[in-house]
Specification:
It is a single chain. The chain contains twelve helices and ten strands. It is an alpha/beta fold. The radius of gyration is 18 Å and the shape is globular. Bound molecules: D-glutamic acid. The site of D-glutamic acid has 16 residues, from helix 3.
Length: about 270
Amino acid sequence: MTTLDNFDKNSPIAFFDSGVGGLTVLNKVKKILPDENYLYYGDTAHMPYGEKTKAQLLEYSDKIFKFFEEKGSKAVVMACNTTSSVVYNDVKGKYNFKLYPVVQSVAQILAGLPIERLGIFATRATIDSGAYQKEIAKYNPDIKVFGQHCPQWVHIVEENTANSRRSVEIIKSDLDKMLENNPEKIVLGCTHYPFLIDVLSKFAPREMFIDPAIDFANAIKHDLTKSGLLKDDKTPSVEEFYVSSNPRNFKSASKMFYELTKEPELLVFD
Ligand code: DGL
């Protein structure tokens, strides 16, 4: 069980995702909390999470959370919509750190948008869970939410092929399908998808797309501040990156969005 009184405010904030996607969140958090220490785990061996069962996602998350506990993390950011949607309710309160899930943290802000029709692009598991719909409806039952699964997008990002002709065709075709619902805004409800914003913006106005990472980062800062958990020693910020397969691929895919300050290390759990 969580013991809320023993966090060390100078210990790291840990992030995890199935691959490079969570870097879109780390990027935003680092901008507003530049002095913190960061840990990142990309579970690339099990990517895509969006095609996994709840039992599998619980197993992967448990191993990663135990590793983060060993590292003394004060907070863990579920920089992954899929695990936030599918396993957050089962894992919250079970580990010795603060836990921040992306979907639940931004739902209220999305629900408050002055619009009637909201699109959500996300993985199959996120869409099937109905988590965005449920969380948004808690605050605004009147907003109409259209979820759509984009089966190829995570692969396009991990393979770093966003600009190939084939990828652009796939992205455009998924976008066209979503636009048939006439959404006023579309949430990029998978942390990999903001890597594709330039391609999406060729076919629809950039302002139409919402990257929840901005509001998520603000919510994390707000809560750490309120809890008295911001780092206050004067040591320089350090980062560590771990992946469960192919560190070289992680490094090259991250390049289009994030400057890794350290080589990613291979770390596989038994
Ligand atoms: N980036 C993750 C998400 O936000 C997982 C994508 C995947 O591996 O399917 O859902």
